[in-house]
Specification:
Layout lengths: L1 H7 L8 H5 L4 H27 L2 H28 L5
Length: 87
């Protein structure tokens, strides 16, 4: 119920389409990518440790995972921000 109110509420939809279309700045995408990657990397670290039993190997896997997926997520976010669909 609350989610539906947030989606359809006129109070929340005070910005015009033109303002919303460009509201996602690159710095916000970087912050979102970093916060998500911290969560994802912790998951990768735990899973890698459970599978290998070696914390150094698990940390190496998680480190590579952090960098590659951070870059991929940033460009994924920027590409989605350029799409008009769903805005």
């Amino acid at each position: 119920m609350i989610a539906a109110q947030m989606i359809f509420s006129k109070k929340i939809a005070e910005h015009s389409f033109e303002e919303d279309k460009v509201s996602e700045k690159p710095l916000r995408s970087i912050a979102k990518a970093l916060s998500w990657r911290v969560i994802g990397t912790l998951d990768t670290l735990v899973v890698s440790y459970v599978l290998t039993g070696k914390i150094t190997l698990a940390a190496s896997i998680a480190s590579v995972d952090f960098i590659t997926k951070l870059v991929l997520y940033f460009f994924h976010e920027r590409a989605w921000n350029k799409l008009k669909w769903g805005k």
